[in-house]
Amino acid sequence: MDPVRNPYAPGAGQRPPELAGRDRELEQFDVVLERIARARPERSLVLTGLRGVGKTVLLNALRSQAIRRLWGTGKIEARPDQSIRRPLSSALHMAVRELTPRHRDPEQIDHFLAVLKAFAMRSAGENAKLRDRWHPGIDVPAASGRADTGDIEVDLVELLVDAAGVARDVGVGIAIFIDEMQDVPPADVSALCAACHELSQQGLPLVVVGAGLPHLPAVLSASKSYSERLFRYVRIDRLERDAADHALVAPAADEGVEYEQSALDALYEATEGYPYFVQAYGKMTWDHAPAVPITADDVRVAGPDAQAELAVGFFGSRYERATPAEREYLQAIATLSESTDGTVSTADIAALLSRKPSSLSPARDSLIKKGLVYSAERGSIAFTVPHFGFYLRRYATT
């Protein structure tokens, strides 16, 4: 098969040629956008799921929907131990710039930009070096007395309310997209919840759409008790069989290539419907197939190379970030999870390693911060990456 014509795209956050199995989420978000535009009450949205299920791809697709409706949009990727004040400022700056040509009152735009500048400049102390200060290219001077208290919760509420006012004047809305939302610092999470609460109460046209790991709802709930009612949570999981087949068949059909049913059976068995794996195995199988149609033998031949590539690029890069103590902890999870649904008891890990549970807490907490494991319930732990246990048992050593 011609590798130049290979349609599959197993890149991080890269949109596949066929966004299969997400029609329901796309349709629901269209309803959210329309309701907010009509000043109907609506909640902000949070996508949760393991790595490799396509959360970032879906987040980008939702942003495209908002852009098609002429909304102002901005996107950030949260990072551990880094305030969202500056990246959120940049995202809102971009969103309002998209609305500015349609706004009738330049003075109001200048006022908002002044407030935005004041909000952003609070991210650096008075003695901060020039390289640490925000340089947004905003010509107006920073405002005084609005979004500049230094209290992120007070400032963010005021800023988002003002941003929503700009969008309302244009007759549209603003959507802010936050990837890796579980990494937002606790104080900023509290501020986001408070801001979304205020926006909802006032019926203002600004929505926050977050994406994160399965424990993100617990992170939000720990910040504000009302967050369970504040957001609409959508779990993004692996693809059903029909959707996984469609993700493979539709792009191939555009290139005049077909699959035998036995090949699709073998591919689903290997990938279990996880979108990243579907793309990775699809790409490798295409490159190995000598002719049309693609057969189960082609899948079997390509399998070892697909696994090896995932071992390096998808699994290995994450494993390399772990310290020796953390790798020992990961190996213990892999051993115990082979006979479970993937979730294991922290007490069982301690017993396997012949250690006191308290002595393993630093490794566990560090792995959670690195996004390699998560704890949905007290006393349990699981990998954030599907098939990670299989990789550790087969390829990795401490």
Automatic annotation (TrEMBL):
This is ATP-binding protein. InterPro entries: AAA_16, Cyt_c-like_dom, P-loop_NTPase, WH-like_DNA-bd_sf, WH_DNA-bd_sf. It holds the Pfam family AAA_16. Gene3D superfamilies: P-loop containing nucleotide triphosphate hydrolases, Winged helix-like DNA-binding domain superfamily/Winged helix DNA-binding domain. One of its GO terms (molecular function) is electron transfer activity. The keyword Plastid does not apply. Residues 1-21 are annotated as: Disordered. Keywords: ATP-binding, Heme, Iron, Metal-binding, Nucleotide-binding. Residues 168-272 form the Cytochrome c domain.
